[in-house]
Amino acid sequence: MTMDSGVILHGLNITYELATLSLTTLGLAVVFGLLGVMNMAHGEFVMIGSYAVVAVQQLGWPVATAMPVALTICGLLGWVVERWLIRPLYARPFDTLLATWALAMLLRKLVEAIWGKGYRNIEIALPAPVNFLGTPYPAYRLMLIFLAMLILVFLYFWYRKSSAGLRVRAMTTNPVLAEALGIDTKKLASQAFVIGMSLAGASGVLLSPLIRIEPGIGVDYLLDAFFVLVVGGLGTLAGFTGGVSVIGGSQALVSSIAGQTSGYAVVLIISIIFLWLKPDGIFSRR
Amino acid sequence: MKKWPFSFPHHPLGLLALGLISVPFVGGDFFAYQIGLFLIYGIATQGVALCWGRLGFLPLGHALFFGLGAYLAGGVLKASTKEPMWLFALPIALLIPALLAWVLAFMVFSRSLRNGPYFSLITLAMSMLGFLAAQQWSEVTGGFNGLGDIPEVAGLDRYSSFYWVVACVAFCTTVLLSILVKRPIGILWRAISQNEDRLQLFGYATDRIKANAFAFSAFLAAMAGALFSAHQGIVTPQALGFVLSTEFVIWAAVGGKSSPAGALLGAVLVGYASAELRDFFSFWEVIVGAAFIVVVRFMPQGMAGIWINKQEQKNSTTNDPPQLAPTSSAPYKVPDLIFDGVRVTQSGVKILDALTFSVNGPGIRAIIGPNGAGKTSTFNALTGRLPVRGGKVSIAGIDVTGWRAWQVARLGIGRKMQIPSVFSELTVDQNLHIALWAGRMHGTQSLQRSPLAWNTKICDEMLDLFSALKDQRHVTAGLLSQGHRQALEFVMTVLPEPHLLLLDEPCAGLSPAETHRMIEVIQFAVQRLGAAALLIEHDISAVAALGGDVYVFHQGKLLAQGLLAEVQNNRDVRAVYAGAKK
């Protein structure tokens, strides 16, 4: 019985790691996969989501308001950024990369100037652990796993089955032809960017009770998310989950055996090998 | 005045020298010590600017080489306190990072032309890996606390006299880079960032040029790192981390990525201002971030952009008298070209379907065929642009299936693209020179001035035939009309004196008069070179005017071959073109 619950606990922990990785990666996957934009400020939107919770608590508002606040801020910011920074640079992938990187720096420093460099914790009473197949496990974590799955399934059906998804796929495959057929690709691109950034912000809110919040956390989320996309490729749910499993799995596994640094090093090495040997088709869009 | 290219002291380099000399006198020794640190960073920033502003690929993890140079030099300096012979090992501290950079760049760039963004991210990941290694491997690197107690070099006080070493190195690298960008290698660097494909079609191994340049930039970074270790006396893992790499890029962007002096000053001004203001004014770095966005979005040349464009135009010409170029190393014989059952498919579509044909001996041949017949794809399969899935392509008896464009070009194959492709930000003269150097310029010649004055008889003859080009030699190629661009690219294709010319619709977009002229020039050039030409053309009257055999392609196969009149009477050909029954 103890053996069983140990296995279940381990499995749940890895599932949880993969679920959080999926949550933080989704926003980048949408932007990168649909627009071909390597958004280096992705992690900063996650960070802003977390700070939305900090801000809401400072103002004495109920915690539940953090989600709409984060969605509004990240969505608005995403709209402005797409309109004024990304759109003029679509044809220049290097400059997009740099401009979003500059944006990342700006956002990081702005948050640092407002809240300081130090760590922040969210003071919130999480629901008590519940029994999952006989193993007690934090309810909040279980909820996150469930939510991540829900969002993935929803996005899959939206992308594959809805008419909006069809338009998006048309735009991704051939933007010029899509435009000729009367699809407003500019509007669609803008929406995709806003959705991607809102997803990033939402993941920041959801993760906020479980992480140490500081202005520099964005880089880690960006890199992990990016590595997932490098390994998994774009546009398919299978590739996405594959990337999440390889990156999240190897990190979790190696970390548990040889420490966190080694886990990180392994992820870096896997990513370098993929970038070197299997990069085709990732930047070729748009 | 004419010989010495820099008219002291109005030239920016003269001003730079004056500025560097005046620092300790104006601000005192400690100020000079602080400025010295950012001059050191500036040298590494120049390396980043070289790759980014000149060659068009961005190293995002350049601190890796900076830190490596710093750790190695620091280790050597420490060892030298016990055994002075160690000082002779100091060059190794610069060469190991350069070698690592060369191998890294070569491994990435030789795989594909279009993986610049991946290269950036690989360097970024490498620098993070280096940071982890420096932190973990504490027996060697001192771990988190760093490698301390690095002695001063040759008794130079790091707080006073060492400034002169730093200033001198910074000045020398600036001068060296400013000279190099005007030399042939500098023009090739710019050509790579504009149109690497085109450069490969002239036979330049661009992956090696890029790897060499990256190694050179890593050498600069490592040299800066070595100075850093002596200047600071301690090296911590931060010296090869992500943050410093980022700062190099920002300094290069703000200062001016195409200007060595701009990159240096960017590092000094932004870096020093940040160090001073960061603690007093919490929004300072927000302002730096905003400035960085503005620069990327609106000022691609940074602060230096204000003076750089005028300088470039002024200095890119040489007043040396023209001299005859050495003979081309291309084989002096028409190579036999054989396509034997070549298959090319892309995403399930058959593009070439067991295509078999051959070209032997001099003279002009035309390839005709409806759209989608595989005409341009034939050229692409030959010059390594499309992967060949089956069959064999051979040139002069050598199996060249799967070769890269530059390898094929070196067998004496010249190609003109369907859409005229020239180096649009270089002048007509520079475009012509790049073509002229192909197959002629060897190794160190690219660092010398003399190839800038090279000329050949054929070049003069061709320019006499296209006199419009002759009058526009100092015009930027991107500003030429379509007709002149076609002419320029054709002349460029001829200049390396290839013996098999692949001409893809050389008359496209030309007026009837221009077409007529082009046909005359093609006939002249092919005759003059004693070459064979394979020409794709839709205009049957042009094909008739050119004479020679005609190959009719259809659906990736050779449908018919012969003189135009024979081909026109061929029933299969009529069926394809006029829709008659086979």
Care to describe what's here?
The complex is a heterodimer of chains A (286) and B (582). Chain A is mainly alpha-helical and 286 residues long. Chain A has a single domain (2-277), classed as ABC transporter involved in vitamin B12 uptake, BtuC, CATH 1.10.3470. Chain A contains 11 helices and 2 strands. A two-stranded antiparallel ribbon of chain A has the order 1-2. In chain A, helix 1 packs antiparallel against helix 8. The radius of gyration of chain A is 19 Å and the shape is globular. With 582 residues, chain B is α/β, with parallel strands linked by helices. Chain B has 2 domains: 27-241, no CATH class; 337-578, 3-Layer(aba) Sandwich (Rossmann fold), CATH 3.40.50. Chain B has helices at 12-55, 63-80, 90-109, 116-136, 138-141, 162-180, 184-201, 206-232, 242-255, 260-277, 284-298, 305-315, 375-382, 405-409, 428-437, 457-465, 467-471, 482-494, 512-529, 540-546, 564-569, 571-578, and strands at 323-324, 337-346, 349-359, 363-368, 390-395, 398-399, 413-416, 454-455, 500-504, 532-536, 550-554, 557-562. In chain B, the strands form 3 sheets. Chain B has a 6-stranded mixed beta sheet, with helices on both faces. A 4-stranded antiparallel beta sheet of chain B has the order 3-2-5-6, covered by helices on one side. A two-stranded parallel ribbon of chain B has the order 1-8. In chain B, helix 3 (90-109) runs antiparallel to helix 8. The longest helix of chain B has 44 residues, at 12-55. The model of chain B is unreliable at 1-9 (pLDDT under 50). The interface between A and B is large, with 40 and 39 residues.
